[in-house]
Structure formats: structure tokens, C-alpha cells
Amino acid sequence: MKKPGIYNAIIFGSTGVFGSNLSFELAKKDINLVLQGRSLEKLKDLSDKISQIKKPTLFQGDVTKKEFYDNLFKSVSQKYKKIDLIVNLIGQFNGLKPLTHLSHSEWDKFLEINISSYWRILKELEPLIRSAEEPKLITLTNSDISVGKAYHNIFSICLSARNTMFQTLKEENKNLGLKIISVDVQQINGGMSSSLRGNKKFENQNLQKVSEDIINNFL
After folding, report:
1. What is the structure's pLDDT at 187?
2. How far is Cα of residue 158 from the mean position of the Cα atoms in its chain?
3. CATH number at residue 151
């Protein structure tokens, strides 16, 4: 087993509810971190807090913009020659409604954010993933929603599509030793889950458990 200090990890969606918690936990393990977020202000706030443990590298950008992908590989590869761990927590949901009640623009927007951006990130970072000895890709899923749960529209579809996409990637790269980890989580009372839970309330204890599951699967 390698020493944790030589690991390089990138977290997409690091400023969200899950991402900020996980960033702290990985920093405690002395892992080199690249933190991505759409808001530079939130990234800086997170960096200021984490820097007391370990100073991260920041990558600010919007996954719906072409320049995000134009700059991604160059920015990360200038700092690291390999990426051992990619954690992708990016997602957006506009609330519970019947599938065909989405507008055309909503469909395109949420499809891009919740599935297409995942593929684009993998495509751009593939050389850095292939340079790692035992690369791991981690994302979140929900086994109840991903099977076509009523009124969860595009989010349900994209969860299912992501699971299929990652499995296809794994099958095509057996010689790489690539490990795909989909952490099954339930909703919490914050972040995107606020749009998913309806009138229900959930225990925030899930938050720490998700971070622990990710770290235990990685180290």
C-alpha cells in the first residue's frame, strides 16, 4: 500500500455540501488536492479553511462553458503528472415534476450538467488517469432514484446513465486497474437534496458517512 501523501486527487463540486466535508477529510490524510467549483469566492473560502491542514490547488470554472474543458487538462497537468482519484459530485436538479413538464431548455441544461459534463471531464483527464497505477473514479448515486423513480425526471435518468457510462469505461480499461466506486447515498437537508426530498426530512449524519465511505474505498 502506498503512503497517502503521494496521492493526487481532484474533487469536482468541492464547494457543495458533500464536497466541502470530503475535502477536509482528504486533507487530513495528507492527500494532494485539486478543488473545483463554479464560485471563486466559495473556493477561496474553502481553501482558507483547508490550508490550515494542507494547501489545495484551486480550479474555478463552469462545466457548461467550453473554456472549462479547454483549460482543465492544462491547469491540472501543470501541477500534477497523474491523478489517482477523481471524485465527481457535480449535479443540478430543478425539483420534483413529471418528466414531460420539463421545458426543452431545462432538458438540455440538466442533461449537460448531470451526464455530459461527466464524460467531458473523463475525456480531458484521461492521460492523467492513465498515468496513475491504481486510478479510482468516485461518484454518488441513489439506488431508489436511479431506477426511474416517479417525478425525479432528468435526475433519475442521468443517475442511471452515469452508472452505465462508468461501467462501460471500466470494461474497456480492464488492463488499467481502474476502479469505479458509486457511493449510494440518501438525501440530506441541504444542497441539491433540498430539491429532491419534497416535504421529507433526512438525517445529516449521512454526510460524514459518505466521506468515510469514499476514503475507505480509496485508501
Report:
1. 60
2. 14
3. 3.40.50.720
